[in-house]
Amino acid sequence: MEDNPYSKMLGIMRRQGKSAVPITFSTGTVLSASPLSIQVGGLTMSGAELLVNPQLLKGYKRNVSVTEVEPEEPLPSCKCKTEYLDDELQPGDTVALLTLDEGQRFVVLCKVVSS
């Protein structure tokens, strides 16, 4: 099949297609958390224009159990503690965005801060 001209043409088309659809990232500012709206480059995006990491939405809770082992005792004992982490978006938060559909939709990946 290596001499098949259609296979060669398909390979060329695949290589060209990958270069024609760049993956772009940008940042945006949360204007409102509920309903979610984000300002991206002067445009306000909301609703179906946004796909959101569920950990950033109001009401999402992660249950994290932390176990501490006491090595001094003859048999190790554990102290377990449960914490609920709340990372919901707030107005003014800066978020990292992945651009889809030539800037028509965005994936809200995470919050970002300046170092």
Please describe the structure with a list of short key phrases separated by commas or semicolons.
115 residues, mainly beta, 6-stranded mixed beta sheet, 1 helix, flat
One letter per element, helices H and strands E, the order comes to: HEEEEEEEE
- Low-pLDDT residue spans: none
Helix content: 10-25%
Our measurement of the CA-to-CA distance between the termini, rounded to an integer number of angstroms, reads: 53 Å
Count of discrete alpha- or pi-helical segments spanning 4 or more residues? 1
Mean pLDDT: 81
Number of strands: 8
Structural features, described:
The protein is mainly beta and 115 residues long. It has one helix and eight strands. The chain has one helix at residues 5-20; strands at residues 25-33, 36-40, 43-46, 50-52, 62-70, 77-85, 94-100, 105-112. The strands form two sheets. A six-stranded mixed β-sheet has the order 3-2-1-7-8-4, with no helix packed on it. A two-stranded antiparallel sheet has the order 5-6. A hairpin with a 4-residue loop joins strand 7 (94-100) and strand 8 (105-112). The radius of gyration is 23 Å and the shape is flat. The mean pLDDT is 81.
